[in-house]
Amino acid sequence: MTKRRKKRLKPSAIVGYSFLGLYAVAAIAFLMFCLDLNMLPVMYIIIEVVVLAVLGVLFAIMQRKFSLSVISDMLCFIFSIGLFAGCYFIYQTGSTISNVASTEAQTNVISVYVMDDDPAQSLQDIADYQFGISATVDRENTDNAISSLRDQLGSELSVSEYEDLFTMVDDLRSGRTGAVIINSAYLGIVSDVEGYSWVLTDLREVSSVALEVADAGRNDVPDDVPETFVMYLSGIDTYGGISARSRSDVNILAVVNTRTKNILLLSTPRDYYVDYSVTGGAKDKLTHAGIYGIDASMDALERLYDIDIDYYLRVNFTGFIDIIDALGGVDVYSEYDFSVENIRSYQQGYNHLTGLEALAFARERYSFAEGDYQRADNQMEVIRAVIAKCASSSLLTNYTSVMRAVAGSFDTNMPEDQIASLVRMQLADMSSWDINSYTVSGESASAETYSMPGQNLYVIIPDESDVNNAKEMISEVYGTNDESSGSNETAQ
Question: In the chain, N or C: fewer CB atoms in 10 Å?
Fold first, then answer.
């Protein structure tokens, strides 16, 4: 009886099936990454499955003929590379969102400063200096920082108490004291006073202590994304990590209606004279609320507009610069010609700006008669420019660097699954959004603030009719007034 010989696969078939196997692995991996990201609507996943399956069958059929099998192998390899690249980008996206949605514990950063021309480079170099501290301002954090500095040095510090911060920095400048210990956020407050802008340029940090704030921030976020919600967009005046408490230079409320696709961007000047729970009824600048945490800033805006804020999103100067640079710069429209010293001159019309130039554009106020109001308008222009750039091919070509910049520079209390839900909702219908903007105004004045007692600072007294207009606009977006919430009219 003759034995049947096993049919051996030809070398070309082995190569072909190997490429088919590679494609199958890549396709399955890509689908698993898409499912794990949880951002794509079910219909998108179904379409992906069908398309990838049809391509797989087509590649398998092409293997039957040698002339077509070579093309099949090439296509399998190209598609596999593309699918694995897609897996990487999806991983980057998921990792970034997870990082942003994982809120860091807030910290108070207490720093030791010397004059910039002082030769000291470390804490050990100034161990025998006379240290100036405030007798009243932020005293608990200052005392805790001194205790930590003593532990680092293994010796006592020679400390002099000052009744006000201005006398303290004056003595540092004149050489009557060698170093000062102060919450870095308060240094910005001092610099706002006429004649003291030098503290931001002429002082140098030689050491710092980060004191973690227990139970910082609020956890009362909605269980699911509401049809209408408010997100507080806060731009803080720090570089480096996002956890440090600091003044909030940008204070924008994004009032969102996901049903009517309406967004109101409501900007409140940083110098608005308001109160919040920490002050016990005393008035303070809105920007100073950030010193007491993101929850204090939200509380101040909730009291001002009689609303509840659902989410927050914080970004600092480092993140702002890195993201714009990662995008390759942005094109920002300027209403005026003006210059920012040591940065650049801006021309009326569109200006292509780097991250640092965009930051200077968004922060400048002294060049304009409208001051803080023009700055708020400029901040809106930068936001629009960033959105426009993200909607262009620049986001794809610079995707990895943008994700890297976002990961370490943003902080939000919106849960990861709710971010995914918003993305799914938008991808499901791809509807356009009506984005309106409004900036409240007020009257310039000089007044004492809670954070800087005994010193009159520049403030803006809120215009009540303007605030009421803002409340009406919020109600319109929420649809609680009438059916006009879908209006396309842009607020001026």
Answer: N
